[in-house]
Structure formats: C-alpha cells, structure tokens
Amino acid sequence: MEEPNCERDTPRMNKYACACAVIASMVSIIFGYDTGVMSGAMIFIKEDLKINDTQLEVLAGILNLCALVGSLCAGRTSDYVGRRYTIVISSVIFMLGSILMGYGPNFAVLMVGRCTAGFGVGFALTIAPVYSAEISSASSRGFLSSLPELCISLGILIGYVSNYFFAKLTLKLGWRLMLGIAAIPSLALAFGILKMPESPRWLVLQGRLREAKEVLLKVCNSKDEADNRLRDIKTAAGINENCTQENFVSLHQKSRGKGVWKELILRPSPPVRWMLLASIGIHFFEHATGIEAVVLYSPRIFKAAGVTSKNKLLLTTIGVGVTKAFFIFVAAFLLDKVGRRPLLLFSVGGMFFSLIGLGFGLTMIGHSGDHNLNWAITLSIITIYAYVAFFNIGLCPVTWVYSSEIFPSRLRAQAFGIGVAVNRATNATVSMSFISIYKAITIGGAFFMFAGISLVAWFFFYFFFPETKGRALEEMEEIFTKTTRRDATNAAGIQLSGTTHG
C-alpha cells in the first residue's frame, strides 16, 4: 500500500513559508517598477539629454539583453552560494543600477546603469521563483511561485504612478528621481532577505541535513510533514532516507553547479530532455504571442484603434496595467485548485480568439481610414483588454510556476536560468521589432501573426505538458518519465502497426 504523501494531505498554507516567498518576490516589484517608470521617463530623457529615437530604442531594449546574461549567471551562482544570497546579490545589483541611472549626467552613464539593472533583472527573474518553489509545500506551490509575477505587475503600476507625480518636478530632477528612487527599497530588501532561511533543498544538496530539517520544521505545518519532505529530498539527492547523521553528510559531489550543463544539454536523460523542451517552449511562447507589443506599445495600438485624445490614451493604457495585475491576482488562487494545464489551455485559447478579433478590428479601421468606425474601435479596445486578461490568468503565471518546479533539485536553478534567457531574448526581439513588423504587414496583420503563433502554442502545450498540480518536487522526474515512456510505447505501436500493414 502506498504511503500517503503528507504534502498532499496538508492543504493549509504555512504562514512562515508564505512570508518567505513574499519577501523573496519583493525584488520583482523593483524590476516591475523599473519597467513601468522607464516608459514615462523616456519622454523626459529624450528632451533633457537630446537623444534620438534609435538611442531610445536601445535604452529600452538593452535591459532584456543584459537580463539574458544575468539569468545564465544566476543559476550557477545560486548553486554555489545558495538561493538566499543570490537574491541579496540581485538586490545590490539593482541598487547600483538605480544609482547610476538616477545620476545619469549623460547617455553613456545612463546606459551603464540600465545594463547593470538589466543584469539584476536576470538574477531576480531566475532565483525568486526557484526559491519560492523550493520553500513551498505541494499544496501551495502554485500560489507562492506565482507571487513574483504578481509583484512585477504591481511594480509596473507603481512606476506609472511615479511618472505622474515626479513629472511635476523640474526636467533635470524629475526623471532622475523616477529612476534613482528604486535604490532605497533595493537596499532595504538586501538586508531583509538576510533574515530569511535558506532553501532546504539546497541545504540537503550541500549535506547540511540539520539546517535543512530546522528550516522544514518552520515551513511545514507539522513534524510529520517536515520528516516526510526531508526524506523525499534526501532520496532525490542520493542520500539514504534512513540516514541518522543530522549535522552534516559528506556527499561524493556537492551541488556547486558542476556538470549541470552536460546533464542538461550534452547528455540529457529522456525525462530531463522533455523538461527542458517544456521549459524553453513555454518561455518562448510567453512573449512570442505578442504580450510585449501590447504592454509597451498600447498607446500606439489604441491610437491606431481610433483613441486620439491624450487623456483617453493615458487612461486606456493604465487600464491595461490594472487588468494585468487583477487577473494575475486571480490566477494565483486558481493555480493550486484548477491546475496548471487547464489554466494554460484556457488562457492560450482565449488569447487566440482575442488576437483574431483585434487583428480584424484594426484591419477594418486601417482599410476604411475612418476613425469613426465605432463598432471596429469598440471591438479593438475590448479585445485588447480580453487578450491581456486571458494572458495573465494562465500563460503568464504558469510559465514561471511550471518551469521552476519541474526540474530535479540538482538542475533546477541553472535549467530555469536557460528558460529565463530564452524568455528575455524573445522579449527583446518582439519589443525591438514590433514597429518594423507592423509597418511591413500592417498593425492588424501583426496581430494575425501573433494569433497564428498562439494556435501553435496551444497544440504544443496540449501534447507536451503533463499536469504537476499537487505533486512534490521530488516526483517530477517520475511524471516526465511516465510521459516519455508512454510516448515511446505509442511510437512503437504505430511502427509495429505500419510494419504489419506493410
């Protein structure tokens, strides 16, 4: 008889684990703030520093390119120094970037600050979801691992509000305060995170069993749950589950990140290959389906849809931010109840139909040349909000939750970093090419293109994504092993059938 899994039988969320995940996710608020505030600050930067549109595009896009490098470094760093200290490092990098941008006497210094902040973004996006996943129980992991995305949305809204208030100051002071003020919460967060416990899974991989048990006793609701989780983690790390040496266990090879790339890229096992494909795929499709075009260029899209008043453009753009934050908040509570897979398929299906409607509405307005085509204007506005809602209730949070939980502990941080690098590269590509794309194939055609990509994404998720809701992190390899075995069996059956008929 199978022994009951204590994590599945404990639906009550642990308050201490929740507090740790919230603090770890706060670094994402700073990233979201930097993203949101830059959209308004660029108006004043252009006027003050006398830079051209090409320099502005580089300033906006360089953050994601530097985040790509940061995400690849963060995984190895967290394997070496631990998850907690890696979050501290990301906060310090953010602080330095904010100080440089706030100082910003010229374009060169501003770019250095933006690059530094981008490097910190890569660290933050990689480590916050990994830490939250490793500190959580299976019953609350979806909610806690989605907190970084919720914090990014809140940060973006705070950035919009800062734009409004700091814009009232002088030209030279206003935009510098917009960008530089983020250094204050970055410093406070760096000190606050030092009070958090280390990830128990990382501690076990270092052989520090006593410390891991102490952490688990705090983040679990009972001693039995802590013992069961410790037993599962030890087994996954190759330590005998009956090992009674609690202070320190000398492992043959501590997890310092060595050999991970070989196991991920050069000689992956079938389940690890499947996990990596799933992680890279979902990070690619998160941005290839067009969300960055809508968030960054929503004023242009609304203007193309017939909204010409500046006040109305501002209100409709803020509405996109509010919609984003609200539906991520709703999704956080649904992930552990509905499951990752149903939310993902529902989300991408809704995005497909919303993009079709948006492309049709914008195409009709473009061909008619009449911004008084009220039904097409209404359709375009409704479908923009619908698209943002569908994206944020599924694809957005599931991307980060799913890819942070599926990998074995020894691979998790660096494998997740690869996914984040793909995410940032796709983000940068879309954000820096959208204007060129819609000028080449019309703005309506651009959204028809994103609709086509969404349809491909739906089939990818349908065939390649097993459900992970309520399963312990140590069970993920088993889930993907069963998936690969089933596919191999089906392929063998098809081949045998073809041979028989032949």
UniProtKB/TrEMBL annotation:
This is Uncharacterized protein. It comes from Vaccinium darrowii.
